[in-house]
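Aggregate trends can hide what the representation actually does to any particular protein. The sequence in question and its structure tokens are set out directly beneath this paragraph.
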Amino acid sequence: MDMMIYTIHAPTDDHLEEVKTEMTTLGRPSIRVVDCGDYYMALEGSHRVAAAHALGVEPELVIYEQADEIDITVFDWFDRANWAETVYSAGEVAGELYSMQARAYQF
């Protein structure tokens, strides 16, 4: 499958090595993403996506469509000070998470 996944931020080297080591034992990671048409925006797992890419493993995607509503309090990036509500459309969340810090990975 030819797909592009953008992550929220770049991984840190130390944590990336830990995740790669774990992935060799645990196998293919599951990542929640938003379908943005010609790419996916990861809602989580910046290190898991990077580790999967480095190891040549295609992640299992849990795909939200843009109109799907999601509760953002389940994600580790959620900070009440930056979000007025707790439930948003997946498209809104993907738009807010995409930034200059986002990294792209081709699978």
About this structure: The longest strand covers residues 30-35. The beta strands are 4-7, 30-35, 40-42, 60-64, 69-71, 87-89, 103-106. Helices lie at 13-26, 46-55, 90-97. Residues 13-26 form the longest helix (14 residues).
